[in-house]
Amino acid sequence: MGKHKIQFANTAIIYYPDRVKVQVENITKTYTKLLSKKTVEAVKNVSFEIKPGEIYALLGPNGAGKSTLIKMIAGLIIPTSGKILFDDKKVKNYEALSAVLEGTRNVYWRLTPLENLHYFANLRGVPTRTIKAKAEQYLVDLDIDAKKKNQSRHLSRGMLQKLAIASALITDPQILLLDEPTLGVDVASARKIKQKIRDLAKKEGKTILLTTHQMDLVDKLADRVGIINKGELIREGTIQELKQIAKKYLYEFVVKGKFTPPALWKKKYDVKVKNSNGDLTEMEIDCKSAEGFKEALETVSKKSEQIISVRQTQDDLEEVFLRSVNGG
Ligand code: ADP
Ligand code: MG
């Protein structure tokens, strides 16, 4: 895989000419239940883009439409309408793409880990000799228990997931789709998986889409997040942006002595008194607007003994997410 280093003045930019951008344009998927003929709108007019070297996370509760989206991008199910483009082109069965679907049936249980890697490489036309060293390396890199003769069905859930990821990587795909990559996986394996995902994007410039309903995975890993609920992409942005969108005017006030929030505040702000031990009072106020913050600050400075500190704080991603899916 080619990699050019371009030197501009005093910065070096690594440019990957063969990396691929993925565009999802107005994708809709309506399932029709076979017997009842009832329809389910699993994905509704969703658009987003993933750049090379970027980790994009689709975050949403169960039934939001995440797996359906992944399967459409992977070419496994056909969208009802809309387009999926790779570098601005419509391509059927895109070869430089690998997907790890949800669950444990991504590898063959009766093959050993090494046999699985060879099997998946051969399936895509990569000859055994080309991947021999690489396959062994993946087992080591990902810490997969590969006792030579043991069938993969003896592996733990975490090991199986790591093997599924290695099997997806063995053909050196430019795009990697991971559906719930750390769901049900032990802590050590989850850590390995996260590290691998990060390296693939940051060191190798791969284009990565992952889906999850686990906040911790997104917070540490994703460059951008799309929040999806009931088939709709309801919010999108970097983690910083998402935290900002939700509560721009969240402030922590620490004042000397006892401070009782005025009754009037109940209507205007959300106030949480976090600590009040007599010596000082610590509270978090969602001031709702710049004007609201000004007023709160004036009130606090008038009515408290002394302001010790005022600090703008951020919501954690979990709260942003919950508010988004609850229509806040
Ligand atoms: P997620 O992965 O976010 O949990 P899914 O994409 O699996 O969501 O499901 C989205 C919605 O589509 C759900 O309501 C689910 O029941 C429905 N669904 C998924 N697959 C099918 C199918 N093959 N036939 C009918 N409905 C489906
Ligand atoms: Mg799913």
N-to-C SSE series? EEEEEHEEHHHEHEHEEHEHEEHEH
Topology, number of strands: 15
* Total count of helical runs of at least 4 residues: 10
Kindly state the percentage of residues in helix. Answer: 25-40%
Q: Beta-strand percentage?
A: 25-35%
Largest sheet, spatial ordering of strands: 7-8-9-5-10-11
Mind summarizing the main beta sheet?
6 strands, mixed
State the end-to-end CA separation.
Answer: 45 Å
Radius of gyration: 25 Å
Instruction: Name the bound molecules.
Output: adenosine-5'-diphosphate, magnesium ion
Taken from the alpha-carbon principal axes, the silhouette is: elongated
Poorly predicted segments: 1-15
The pLDDT mean sits at 88
Structural class: alpha/beta
Care to give the gist of this entry?
This protein has 328 residues and is an alpha/beta fold. Helix content is 32%, strand content 30%.
Tell me what you see in this structure.
By secondary structure, the protein is an alpha/beta fold. Helices cover 32% and strands 30% of the residues. The protein contains 10 helices and 15 strands. It has helices at residues 66-73, 113-123, 128-141, 157-169, 187-202, 215-221, 239-246, 265-268, 290-303, 317-325, and strands spanning 4-8, 11-15, 22-32, 39-50, 55-59, 81-86, 97-100, 175-179, 207-212, 224-229, 232-237, 250-256, 270-276, 280-286, 307-312. The strands form 4 sheets. The protein has a 6-stranded mixed beta sheet, sandwiched between helices. A 4-stranded antiparallel beta sheet has the order 13-14-12-15. α5 links the parallel β8 and β9. It is elongated, with a radius of gyration of 25 Å. The relative contact order is 0.13. The structure holds adenosine-5'-diphosphate (ADP) and magnesium ion. Magnesium ion binds next to α1.
